[in-house]
Design goal:
The chain is α+β, with helices and mostly antiparallel strands. The chain contains 3 helices and 9 strands.
Length: about 140
């Protein structure tokens, strides 16, 4: 896995099972959002009381999930696009950046946000299943 730090340096090739949670807590988002006329999604920033700072989102669906997290009593911190997972799966190099990492009273929760109709696409289903297995291997949800 790789993590982008506040100084824009990237810590690469961390072992997933031993990456420090404190490093992830302070990770910077992987992507910056774009604005252009006619775009199909609405990116922006949301002032999250849980974090005491702005948190980015790349769609209204992500914003809705971010609002749920900000109002959830057990969520202590939210990190947008916290890390990039990289692994060779079924002979191909796979990369995935989850949308959010929620640090909760019950442990870390990795969140991916997609519209329901896109979950039926084989590549999306595969990526989410692979990510879920990796996250669960660390005892996270």
């Amino acid at each position: 896995m790789s993590v982008r730090q506040t100084d824009e340096c990237v810590v690469e090739d961390l072992e997933w099972s031993s990456a420090p949670l404190d490093l992830l807590r302070h990770a910077q988002p992987w992507r910056t959002f774009r604005w252009y006329k006619g775009q199909q999604h609405y990116s922006g920033t949301y002032w999250a009381a849980t974090v005491g700072d702005h948190v980015i989102y790349e769609s209204r669906l992500e914003l809705a999930r971010l609002l749920f997290a900000d109002f959830a009593a057990d969520v202590r911190h939210v990190v947008a696009q916290p890390f990039m997972l990289k692994a060779v799966v079924e002979g191909r190099l796979r990369r995935h950046i989850p949308d959010y990492l929620l640090l909760t009273d019950g442990g870390p929760v990795v969140v991916d946000v997609k519209p329901r109709h896109r979950l039926e696409r084989p590549e999306v289903a595969f990526t989410f299943a692979w990510t879920r297995a990796v996250v669960a291997s660390r005892g996270w949800r």
